[in-house]
Amino acid sequence: MSLITVGTMAFDAIETPFGKVEKIIGGSATYVAYAASNFINKVQQISIVGYDFPEDEMQEMKKRGIIMEGVEVVPDKKSFFWSGRYHLDMNTRDTLITDLNVLEDFNPIVPESYQGTEFLMLGNLMPKLQLSVINQLRVRPKLIVLDTMNFWMDIALDDLKAVLKKIDVLLVNDGEARQLSGEVSLVKAAKVIMNMGPRFLIIKKGEHGALLFHENHVFFAPALPLEEVFDPTGAGDTFAGGFIGYLAKTKDISFENMKTAIIVGSAMASFCVEKFGPDRLKEISKADIDERLSEFVQLVNFDIDLV
Amino acid sequence: MSLITVGTMAFDAIETPFGKVEKIIGGSATYVAYAASNFINKVQQISIVGYDFPEDEMQEMKKRGIIMEGVEVVPDKKSFFWSGRYHLDMNTRDTLITDLNVLEDFNPIVPESYQGTEFLMLGNLMPKLQLSVINQLRVRPKLIVLDTMNFWMDIALDDLKAVLKKIDVLLVNDGEARQLSGEVSLVKAAKVIMNMGPRFLIIKKGEHGALLFHENHVFFAPALPLEEVFDPTGAGDTFAGGFIGYLAKTKDISFENMKTAIIVGSAMASFCVEKFGPDRLKEISKADIDERLSEFVQLVNFDIDLV
Known about the structure:
The structure is a homodimer.
Chain A: E1 3-6, E2 10-16, E3 19-26, H1 28-36, E4 43-49, H2 55-63, E5 66-73, E6 80-86, E7 93-99, E8 119-122, H3 127-136, E9 143-147, H4 150-155, H5 157-164, E10 169-173, H6 174-181, H7 186-194, E11 200-204, E12 210-214, E13 217-221, H8 235-250, H9 255-272, H10 279-283, H11 286-300
Parallel strand pairs in A: 1-4, 1-8, 2-6, 4-5, 8-9, 9-10, 10-11
Antiparallel strand pairs in A: 2-3, 6-7, 11-12, 12-13
Helix pairs in contact in A: 1-8, 3-5, 6-7, 8-9, 9-11
């Protein structure tokens, strides 16, 4: 099984009610790749970094089976940098700084060796670039998952709609689902969005879990109630990485298996928020993941004899 | 099995984005009783109404096995009246009018025939009155469930804390759990609140479902994603009524059975919001409830082979 992930590799500076870090590793493709590498050992990364991205981080990724051939290193520019501050509820944040740096010139090229891949995860990025990656693939992947955000709905809606026609699974949060569809009810929003192209829609609700829609079916995955949410940065990307990593491992893209994949994604996200940056994703073991998955089973398991 | 429910029986005027009603039946004990009467046929009501509360509504309640001996009718005063307007998201509302009327003199008296009841549902009410009902019962019920709200935390916190020491299950929403505990994390909030008395805590999160805490266990019940939420008024009381009605019917107050009871409460709440007022609760059949419960099973059911 092979998986291409496309997105940013970056530096973040983060302030939460529980602490502050000046410059740590971040980026959507970083989180996706680390999460997915817990399930498959051939993650084909497409991204761009500057001269300042640490060589030891690149080595760490390679060691975990993440293939870096599609990662462009720009020798005379800095890596993408984002800085944000979370509010007390940890569900909302203010962006303080966005330094595009290398991202201004990003033109993702699919290496020849990546051709024929079965799974494609398009991280949050300019829709034109997401479309360009799809168009470069000579054989359509078995499953294309796309993450996006309200920013692209504001400034590049037509491009976004064009790429939506080409994908299988869309990932958005509840506010974005409402914006994209013009519907307040998430059930109605899902119908409108699935008419735009994707056969599956995942609506992420942060600490309130996630919904998976497909045809007339809906599945709800809870988020694990946590004592401490240390840093929510990357939780959505980690969710995506766990989701597609599990699908790529099991090679089963049925609705039933996607339910399980969403629980796996939620479990990975619950690890991500326990530390600043992607560190927690590097240290967890298979046993840790299994134990966390058991907690999810416990969390929602009930018996019912119809009344 | 017998169940005492204490709370208001009232008139509401409601405005939602989907419509407006001038004067319909409302009140916490009304919703609780109608919901619970779908499961048990001996609901012992304690409330107060004015001369204007419709006789045919009282008859309808009696027909459903709701015993009205504990409902005081004040001949020269009007019933409690509440008026509110919901925002577009239906999660928040503004109170427009609160006419206490008969509620100013409410001094709940437990009729002799109610003594020995096994289940007690204390609807949202002044904590002193809730405590007075507990103190009037010569045999402590098997299970005491209490609903309250932020208003009482603001103006009668000491009274509320006194009654919390005497109950088994507390029902609050997420904001109220945070206010009562002083903790942002709901997991931490639950620990603090369970130290105040209740062995079980249910945190209601509206369209985001509900959490049940007990000792070190947590259970999550989703809300059913609905195409239309017509009127959320009474949904929390209906949830409570379904919850305690199911427990009273099954006579099993274990954590395992409470999980099922919360799903039943969520199912009843999902009916409640489909029409203005409690009307929907009067027309549903056992088959409707069973079908809705199956939808909940589908909603959260997944298979997992540990990875």
